[in-house]
Design a protein that fits this description.
Blueprint (H helix, E strand, L loop, with lengths): L19 H8 L1 E6 L7 H11 L23 H6 L6 E10 L6 E10 L8
Parallel strand pairs: 1-3
Antiparallel strand pairs: 2-3
């Protein structure tokens, strides 16, 4: 049975004009989602990023062997088992030195750390 084709034009999505201020802000904005296989180091990578950007002062064991656990794993069970159960979002700033000029530019970074267990995604 043939289907009917509508003669109505396709509705377009609204277009938003960015201001110069928005463009400047977005130029220095980075969004990172960390997603990979189980035990591949997603939370470890996130912890290192937070440490080297100065967001956290100490690096702790993801598996919780130091009785503290990773900053991104906030649930007690996550720290106990050494796995990420719930996605966690955070942010940090990175100051980059431009090689050509030596100028410093600050980037705002948003990070999402995700579980590796397929059933938890």
């Amino acid at each position: 049975m043939p289907t009917e084709v509508s003669a109505e034009p396709v509705k377009e999505y609204p277009v938003f004009e960015l201001t110069d201020e928005d463009r400047k802000r977005l130029k220095f904005q980075r969004n990172i989602g960390v997603s990979a296989h189980i035990d591949s180091g997603k939370t470890t990578l996130t912890e290192r990023i937070l440490y080297y950007t100065g967001r956290i002062r100490e690096i702790h064991e993801v598996r919780g062997r130091d009785n503290v656990g990773a900053k991104m794993d906030s649930m007690e069970l996550e720290r106990e088992k050494g796995i990420t159960i719930q996605s966690a979002a955070t942010f940090c700033d990175w100051v980059a030195t431009m090689p050509a000029t030596g100028d410093k530019e600050k980037y705002a970074i948003n990070i999402i750390d995700t579980p590796g267990e397929l059933l938890l995604l």
